[in-house]
Amino acid sequence: MRFAKDLLALATVSVLAISVTAVAGTVTGTVKFDGTAPKKLRQLKMDADPKCAKKHSGPVMSEMLVLGDGNTMANIFVRVKDVPGNHTAPSEPTVMDQNGCMYVPHVMGVMVGQKFLIKNSDGLLHNVHSLAKINRAFNRAMPGAVTEAEFTFEKEEVMLKIKCDVHPWMSAYVGVMTHPFYDVTGKDGKFEIKGVPAGTYEIEVWHEKLGTKTVSVTVGESDTQKLDFSLSVPKK
What we know:
By secondary structure, this protein is mainly beta.
């Protein structure tokens, strides 16, 4: 009798899992830079702190515009806007490191209520200064002996800038989301957002200087929608 109940419970869980999968889709695509790529990207000047410069074997370039083959773009925050329902934040933290006097990664996402862990792998004095407009701002000094600092965000905010007042070239951007349906492109410009509930949504791509672009898409059950975006320098 007990075996039959366990078998029934297992079957019920399996049906639920199949049902959840069946009504979820995927949004994937590529983001490219539309225009003539700069022949030479801006080099960061770390002269103000020789200890930072010594952490690199050569010049360090700005991450404001990172292009791959075919002008694909890195550091693009891609999100599904206004997904209904309540979504539980992951128990594991999202991690940003201060390494080589740079924020790593340069662009990232975190959910409301999720632990946001900032590490200091440099062993140098940094300070983590958030320029939040919706969430409560913070400005935390992190001397070399302080290896970690932990924060959480209470409200959605896209995007939130973080800077270091000690090293003015250091900056990063965080998308604070109420759901997990977002991604950040790598140098190949690709993104993939899985498990999107069936429905019609606005898909937004964001770049720190080139702004945003939004496209409407309908995601069906077990569906994959491919969207390609191009971003260009706004005309003056």
